[in-house]
Amino acid sequence: MMALASRLIVGLCALALALTGALPARASVRIKDIAGLQGVRDNQLVGYGLVIGLQGTGDSVRNSPFTGQALQSMLDRLGVNVRNSALRTRNVAAVIVTADLPAFAGRGSRIDVSVASMGDATSLLGGTLVVTSLLAADGQTYALAQGRLNVSGFSAQGEAERLTQGVTTAARIPGGALVERQIPDQLATLHVLSLELRNPDFVTAERVAGAINAFTRERYKSTVAFALDHRTISLTRPPNMSTARFIAEIERLTLEPDSPARVVVDERTGTVVIGRDVKISTVAVTHGNLTVRVTETPMVSQPEPLSNGQTVVVPRTQIEAQQGNGRLAIINGANLHTLVRGLNQIGLKPAGIIAILQAIKTAGALQADLVVQ
User: Fold this and answer.
1) 208, 234 Cβ separation under 8 angstroms
2) Which residues fall within 8 angstroms of residue 163, CB to CB, at 6 or more apart?
3) What's the pTM value of the predicted model, to 2 decimals?
4) 158 vs 125: CA distance, rounded Å
5) Which residues pair with 295 in a beta bridge?
6) pLDDT tens digits along 161-198
Protein backbone atom coordinates (compact mmCIF):
# COMPACT_ATOMS: atom_id res chain seq x y z
CA MET A 1 0.00 0.00 0.00
CA MET A 2 2.83 2.38 0.83
CA ALA A 3 4.43 1.77 -2.60
CA LEU A 4 1.07 2.30 -4.35
CA ALA A 5 0.50 5.54 -2.43
CA SER A 6 3.99 6.78 -3.32
CA ARG A 7 3.42 6.08 -7.04
CA LEU A 8 0.07 7.86 -6.86
CA ILE A 9 1.63 10.93 -5.26
CA VAL A 10 4.40 11.01 -7.89
CA GLY A 11 1.80 10.70 -10.66
CA LEU A 12 -0.28 13.57 -9.28
CA CYS A 13 2.82 15.77 -8.98
CA ALA A 14 3.78 15.03 -12.58
CA LEU A 15 0.23 15.86 -13.72
CA ALA A 16 0.30 19.14 -11.80
CA LEU A 17 3.62 20.08 -13.37
CA ALA A 18 2.28 19.23 -16.84
CA LEU A 19 -0.82 21.38 -16.33
CA THR A 20 1.30 24.21 -15.00
CA GLY A 21 3.55 24.06 -18.07
CA ALA A 22 0.54 24.02 -20.41
CA LEU A 23 -0.62 27.42 -19.16
CA PRO A 24 2.45 29.64 -18.82
CA ALA A 25 2.16 32.61 -16.50
CA ARG A 26 2.65 36.15 -17.66
CA ALA A 27 6.29 37.14 -17.69
CA SER A 28 7.48 40.06 -15.59
CA VAL A 29 9.63 42.55 -17.45
CA ARG A 30 11.89 45.36 -16.33
CA ILE A 31 10.81 48.98 -16.62
CA LYS A 32 14.03 49.43 -18.57
CA ASP A 33 12.65 47.23 -21.37
CA ILE A 34 9.25 48.91 -21.78
CA ALA A 35 9.99 52.59 -21.11
CA GLY A 36 12.68 55.16 -21.70
CA LEU A 37 13.60 58.52 -20.26
CA GLN A 38 12.04 61.39 -22.17
CA GLY A 39 14.64 63.39 -24.09
CA VAL A 40 17.29 60.65 -23.98
CA ARG A 41 17.43 59.59 -27.62
CA ASP A 42 19.74 59.23 -30.59
CA ASN A 43 20.30 62.04 -33.06
CA GLN A 44 20.59 61.37 -36.80
CA LEU A 45 23.62 62.58 -38.72
CA VAL A 46 24.15 62.75 -42.49
CA GLY A 47 27.00 63.72 -44.77
CA TYR A 48 28.19 63.63 -48.38
CA GLY A 49 31.53 62.02 -49.14
CA LEU A 50 33.71 60.16 -51.62
CA VAL A 51 34.82 56.53 -51.67
CA ILE A 52 38.16 55.89 -53.36
CA GLY A 53 40.17 52.78 -54.21
CA LEU A 54 37.50 50.99 -56.26
CA GLN A 55 38.57 48.59 -59.01
CA GLY A 56 36.82 50.29 -61.90
CA THR A 57 33.38 49.92 -60.28
CA GLY A 58 32.90 53.56 -59.31
CA ASP A 59 30.85 56.37 -60.82
CA SER A 60 31.27 57.48 -64.40
CA VAL A 61 31.90 61.23 -64.41
CA ARG A 62 29.75 61.70 -67.50
CA ASN A 63 26.65 60.17 -65.89
CA SER A 64 27.40 61.45 -62.37
CA PRO A 65 28.71 65.02 -62.71
CA PHE A 66 28.45 65.62 -58.94
CA THR A 67 31.18 63.01 -58.43
CA GLY A 68 33.57 64.96 -60.65
CA GLN A 69 32.75 68.24 -58.92
CA ALA A 70 33.31 66.71 -55.47
CA LEU A 71 36.60 65.16 -56.62
CA GLN A 72 37.82 68.50 -57.98
CA SER A 73 36.88 70.28 -54.73
CA MET A 74 38.70 67.67 -52.63
CA LEU A 75 41.85 67.89 -54.77
CA ASP A 76 41.75 71.70 -54.58
CA ARG A 77 41.78 71.52 -50.78
CA LEU A 78 44.77 69.20 -51.01
CA GLY A 79 46.63 71.65 -53.27
CA VAL A 80 46.09 69.82 -56.59
CA ASN A 81 44.66 71.93 -59.44
CA VAL A 82 42.59 69.88 -61.89
CA ARG A 83 40.06 72.52 -62.91
CA ASN A 84 40.97 72.41 -66.61
CA SER A 85 41.44 68.64 -66.76
CA ALA A 86 38.92 66.09 -67.93
CA LEU A 87 38.49 63.45 -65.22
CA ARG A 88 37.80 59.94 -66.51
CA THR A 89 38.43 57.85 -63.43
CA ARG A 90 36.09 54.98 -62.44
CA ASN A 91 37.75 54.35 -59.06
CA VAL A 92 35.75 57.02 -57.17
CA ALA A 93 32.11 56.95 -56.05
CA ALA A 94 29.92 59.60 -54.44
CA VAL A 95 28.16 58.33 -51.34
CA ILE A 96 25.76 59.45 -48.61
CA VAL A 97 27.01 58.70 -45.11
CA THR A 98 24.52 58.32 -42.24
CA ALA A 99 24.96 57.64 -38.53
CA ASP A 100 23.08 57.75 -35.23
CA LEU A 101 24.69 59.85 -32.51
CA PRO A 102 23.81 58.24 -29.15
CA ALA A 103 22.77 60.32 -26.19
CA PHE A 104 25.62 61.46 -23.90
CA ALA A 105 28.26 60.54 -26.54
CA GLY A 106 31.42 62.40 -25.56
CA ARG A 107 34.09 63.91 -27.77
CA GLY A 108 36.48 61.31 -29.10
CA SER A 109 34.06 58.38 -28.87
CA ARG A 110 33.45 56.27 -31.98
CA ILE A 111 30.12 55.44 -33.64
CA ASP A 112 29.16 53.20 -36.56
CA VAL A 113 28.32 54.69 -39.94
CA SER A 114 26.42 53.45 -43.00
CA VAL A 115 27.51 54.28 -46.55
CA ALA A 116 25.32 54.10 -49.67
CA SER A 117 26.17 54.98 -53.26
CA MET A 118 24.21 57.77 -54.97
CA GLY A 119 25.69 57.49 -58.49
CA ASP A 120 25.98 54.71 -61.05
CA ALA A 121 28.70 52.79 -59.21
CA THR A 122 28.29 49.04 -59.46
CA SER A 123 30.19 48.03 -56.31
CA LEU A 124 31.85 49.63 -53.29
CA LEU A 125 33.91 46.53 -52.52
CA GLY A 126 37.47 47.40 -51.51
CA GLY A 127 36.76 51.13 -51.19
CA THR A 128 37.86 53.58 -48.53
CA LEU A 129 35.79 56.53 -47.35
CA VAL A 130 37.63 59.85 -47.35
CA VAL A 131 37.08 62.05 -44.28
CA THR A 132 33.46 63.23 -44.32
CA SER A 133 31.69 65.73 -42.09
CA LEU A 134 28.47 64.45 -40.51
CA LEU A 135 25.87 67.15 -39.88
CA ALA A 136 22.81 67.22 -37.62
CA ALA A 137 19.49 68.97 -38.19
CA ASP A 138 20.93 72.26 -36.91
CA GLY A 139 23.61 72.27 -39.64
CA GLN A 140 26.50 71.78 -37.20
CA THR A 141 29.22 69.16 -37.64
CA TYR A 142 29.07 66.60 -34.83
CA ALA A 143 31.32 63.82 -36.17
CA LEU A 144 33.91 63.01 -38.84
CA ALA A 145 33.78 59.69 -40.69
CA GLN A 146 36.60 57.89 -42.45
CA GLY A 147 37.77 54.32 -42.95
CA ARG A 148 37.68 51.17 -45.02
CA LEU A 149 34.24 49.96 -46.10
CA ASN A 150 32.80 46.64 -45.00
CA VAL A 151 30.61 45.36 -47.87
CA SER A 152 28.50 42.28 -47.06
CA GLY A 153 27.53 41.41 -50.66
CA PHE A 154 29.58 40.41 -53.67
CA SER A 155 29.20 40.35 -57.43
CA ALA A 156 30.97 38.20 -60.05
CA GLN A 157 30.38 38.54 -63.76
CA GLY A 158 31.52 36.67 -66.85
CA GLU A 159 30.68 36.85 -70.50
CA ALA A 160 27.47 34.84 -70.24
CA GLU A 161 26.50 34.89 -66.56
CA ARG A 162 26.50 37.18 -63.53
CA LEU A 163 26.22 36.16 -59.87
CA THR A 164 25.22 38.70 -57.25
CA GLN A 165 24.55 38.21 -53.56
CA GLY A 166 23.46 40.97 -51.23
CA VAL A 167 23.85 44.67 -52.02
CA THR A 168 27.27 45.76 -53.18
CA THR A 169 26.46 49.48 -53.32
CA ALA A 170 25.87 49.80 -49.56
CA ALA A 171 28.36 49.23 -46.76
CA ARG A 172 29.13 49.90 -43.11
CA ILE A 173 32.17 51.10 -41.21
CA PRO A 174 32.12 49.82 -37.60
CA GLY A 175 33.41 52.60 -35.39
CA GLY A 176 34.11 54.65 -38.49
CA ALA A 177 33.22 58.10 -37.10
CA LEU A 178 34.76 60.17 -34.33
CA VAL A 179 32.48 62.44 -32.32
CA GLU A 180 33.78 66.03 -32.46
CA ARG A 181 30.93 67.90 -30.79
CA GLN A 182 28.98 66.83 -27.70
CA ILE A 183 25.26 67.41 -27.39
CA PRO A 184 24.48 69.61 -24.37
CA ASP A 185 23.56 67.48 -21.34
CA GLN A 186 20.82 68.90 -19.12
CA LEU A 187 19.84 65.66 -17.44
CA ALA A 188 21.85 66.28 -14.27
CA THR A 189 20.04 69.57 -13.59
CA LEU A 190 16.50 68.23 -14.06
CA HIS A 191 14.45 67.69 -10.92
CA VAL A 192 11.26 66.39 -12.56
CA LEU A 193 11.79 63.53 -15.03
CA SER A 194 9.43 61.77 -17.40
CA LEU A 195 9.30 58.15 -18.51
CA GLU A 196 7.76 57.32 -21.90
CA LEU A 197 6.26 53.90 -22.64
CA ARG A 198 7.31 52.33 -25.93
CA ASN A 199 3.84 50.74 -26.22
CA PRO A 200 1.42 53.29 -24.76
CA ASP A 201 -1.28 51.80 -22.53
CA PHE A 202 -3.20 53.25 -19.58
CA VAL A 203 -3.07 50.05 -17.53
CA THR A 204 0.67 49.65 -18.06
CA ALA A 205 1.27 53.30 -17.15
CA GLU A 206 -0.59 52.87 -13.86
CA ARG A 207 1.30 49.66 -13.11
CA VAL A 208 4.63 51.38 -13.74
CA ALA A 209 3.68 54.25 -11.43
CA GLY A 210 2.48 51.79 -8.78
CA ALA A 211 5.68 49.73 -8.92
CA ILE A 212 7.84 52.85 -8.62
CA ASN A 213 5.82 54.27 -5.72
CA ALA A 214 5.91 50.95 -3.87
CA PHE A 215 9.69 50.98 -4.16
CA THR A 216 10.15 54.63 -3.17
CA ARG A 217 7.76 54.37 -0.18
CA GLU A 218 9.90 51.58 1.21
CA ARG A 219 13.23 53.17 0.27
CA TYR A 220 12.64 56.94 0.56
CA LYS A 221 9.35 57.10 2.52
CA SER A 222 7.66 59.08 -0.28
CA THR A 223 5.81 58.67 -3.59
CA VAL A 224 7.50 60.10 -6.65
CA ALA A 225 5.61 58.72 -9.69
CA PHE A 226 2.41 59.91 -11.30
CA ALA A 227 0.90 58.68 -14.58
CA LEU A 228 0.06 61.73 -16.72
CA ASP A 229 -1.50 59.80 -19.62
CA HIS A 230 -1.25 56.44 -21.39
CA ARG A 231 2.35 57.20 -22.44
CA THR A 232 4.04 59.44 -19.85
CA ILE A 233 4.87 58.85 -16.18
CA SER A 234 6.17 61.86 -14.29
CA LEU A 235 8.98 61.28 -11.75
CA THR A 236 10.21 63.55 -8.98
CA ARG A 237 13.83 62.87 -8.14
CA PRO A 238 14.48 62.47 -4.40
CA PRO A 239 16.77 65.12 -2.92
CA ASN A 240 20.47 64.48 -2.46
CA MET A 241 20.50 61.77 -5.16
CA SER A 242 21.99 61.86 -8.62
CA THR A 243 19.71 61.43 -11.59
CA ALA A 244 21.77 58.55 -12.96
CA ARG A 245 21.51 56.52 -9.74
CA PHE A 246 17.79 57.21 -9.38
CA ILE A 247 17.04 56.09 -12.95
CA ALA A 248 19.23 52.99 -12.50
CA GLU A 249 17.20 51.96 -9.44
CA ILE A 250 13.89 52.58 -11.23
CA GLU A 251 14.85 50.62 -14.37
CA ARG A 252 15.55 47.45 -12.36
CA LEU A 253 11.96 47.21 -11.09
CA THR A 254 9.79 44.53 -12.70
CA LEU A 255 6.09 44.38 -13.51
CA GLU A 256 3.60 42.71 -15.86
CA PRO A 257 2.74 45.04 -18.76
CA ASP A 258 -0.74 44.99 -20.25
CA SER A 259 -1.51 45.03 -23.96
CA PRO A 260 -4.71 45.24 -26.02
CA ALA A 261 -6.17 42.10 -27.54
CA ARG A 262 -4.92 42.15 -31.12
CA VAL A 263 -4.57 39.80 -34.07
CA VAL A 264 -2.04 40.73 -36.76
CA VAL A 265 -2.16 38.97 -40.12
CA ASP A 266 0.10 39.41 -43.13
CA GLU A 267 -1.61 38.10 -46.25
CA ARG A 268 1.55 38.40 -48.33
CA THR A 269 3.65 36.03 -46.21
CA GLY A 270 0.83 34.08 -44.52
CA THR A 271 1.91 35.17 -41.04
CA VAL A 272 -0.65 35.12 -38.23
CA VAL A 273 0.17 36.52 -34.77
CA ILE A 274 -2.49 36.16 -32.05
CA GLY A 275 -2.16 37.99 -28.74
CA ARG A 276 -2.58 36.27 -25.41
CA ASP A 277 -5.80 38.11 -24.45
CA VAL A 278 -7.61 37.42 -27.74
CA LYS A 279 -10.97 35.70 -27.19
CA ILE A 280 -13.60 34.44 -29.60
CA SER A 281 -17.28 34.01 -28.81
CA THR A 282 -18.76 30.62 -29.56
CA VAL A 283 -19.08 30.19 -33.33
CA ALA A 284 -19.37 27.28 -35.75
CA VAL A 285 -16.84 27.42 -38.60
CA THR A 286 -16.45 25.37 -41.74
CA HIS A 287 -13.94 25.94 -44.48
CA GLY A 288 -13.65 24.17 -47.83
CA ASN A 289 -11.25 24.86 -50.68
CA LEU A 290 -12.59 25.17 -54.22
CA THR A 291 -10.11 24.54 -57.04
CA VAL A 292 -10.99 25.35 -60.64
CA ARG A 293 -8.58 24.21 -63.34
CA VAL A 294 -8.90 25.46 -66.94
CA THR A 295 -6.73 23.67 -69.54
CA GLU A 296 -6.34 24.91 -73.09
CA THR A 297 -5.20 22.26 -75.62
CA PRO A 298 -5.65 23.68 -79.13
CA MET A 299 -5.70 21.16 -81.98
CA VAL A 300 -4.68 21.56 -85.63
CA SER A 301 -7.30 20.49 -88.21
CA GLN A 302 -5.91 19.31 -91.56
CA PRO A 303 -8.14 19.31 -94.71
CA GLU A 304 -8.68 16.25 -96.84
CA PRO A 305 -6.32 15.72 -99.75
CA LEU A 306 -7.29 17.61 -102.93
CA SER A 307 -10.20 19.32 -101.10
CA ASN A 308 -8.87 22.88 -101.44
CA GLY A 309 -9.40 23.27 -97.69
CA GLN A 310 -7.27 25.24 -95.20
CA THR A 311 -5.35 24.21 -92.12
CA VAL A 312 -6.98 25.78 -89.05
CA VAL A 313 -6.42 25.69 -85.29
CA VAL A 314 -9.43 24.39 -83.39
CA PRO A 315 -9.67 25.52 -79.73
CA ARG A 316 -10.21 22.85 -77.10
CA THR A 317 -10.95 23.82 -73.49
CA GLN A 318 -11.24 21.47 -70.54
CA ILE A 319 -12.59 22.74 -67.19
CA GLU A 320 -12.35 20.79 -63.92
CA ALA A 321 -13.78 21.89 -60.58
CA GLN A 322 -12.76 20.19 -57.34
CA GLN A 323 -13.91 21.12 -53.86
CA GLY A 324 -12.36 19.77 -50.72
CA ASN A 325 -14.33 18.41 -47.83
CA GLY A 326 -15.22 21.08 -45.30
CA ARG A 327 -15.38 20.06 -41.64
CA LEU A 328 -17.65 21.94 -39.25
CA ALA A 329 -16.00 22.84 -35.96
CA ILE A 330 -17.17 24.82 -32.95
CA ILE A 331 -14.63 27.36 -31.73
CA ASN A 332 -14.95 28.95 -28.30
CA GLY A 333 -11.73 30.80 -27.60
CA ALA A 334 -11.83 31.23 -23.83
CA ASN A 335 -8.05 31.61 -23.94
CA LEU A 336 -5.23 31.50 -26.44
CA HIS A 337 -4.65 27.73 -26.09
CA THR A 338 -8.30 26.90 -26.74
CA LEU A 339 -8.39 29.21 -29.75
CA VAL A 340 -5.28 27.69 -31.31
CA ARG A 341 -6.51 24.16 -30.60
CA GLY A 342 -9.85 24.92 -32.27
CA LEU A 343 -8.20 26.36 -35.38
CA ASN A 344 -5.86 23.38 -35.61
CA GLN A 345 -8.79 20.95 -35.46
CA ILE A 346 -10.06 22.27 -38.78
CA GLY A 347 -6.67 21.57 -40.36
CA LEU A 348 -6.11 24.87 -42.15
CA LYS A 349 -3.21 26.48 -43.91
CA PRO A 350 -2.23 30.08 -43.03
CA ALA A 351 -4.35 31.49 -45.88
CA GLY A 352 -7.40 29.64 -44.54
CA ILE A 353 -6.77 30.83 -40.97
CA ILE A 354 -6.55 34.43 -42.20
CA ALA A 355 -9.83 34.08 -44.11
CA ILE A 356 -11.58 32.55 -41.08
CA LEU A 357 -10.31 35.24 -38.69
CA GLN A 358 -11.55 37.96 -41.04
CA ALA A 359 -14.94 36.25 -41.30
CA ILE A 360 -15.19 35.84 -37.51
CA LYS A 361 -14.36 39.54 -37.08
CA THR A 362 -17.11 40.44 -39.57
CA ALA A 363 -19.54 38.25 -37.63
CA GLY A 364 -18.69 40.17 -34.43
CA ALA A 365 -17.35 37.13 -32.57
CA LEU A 366 -13.66 38.16 -32.53
CA GLN A 367 -13.14 40.18 -29.36
CA ALA A 368 -9.93 41.83 -30.51
CA ASP A 369 -8.51 44.28 -33.02
CA LEU A 370 -7.75 42.69 -36.38
CA VAL A 371 -4.75 44.31 -38.10
CA VAL A 372 -4.25 43.30 -41.72
CA GLN A 373 -0.87 44.20 -43.19
Assistant:
1) no
2) 155, 156, 157
3) 0.67
4) 18
5) 318
6) 777 777 888 999 999 999 998 887 767 666 778 899 99
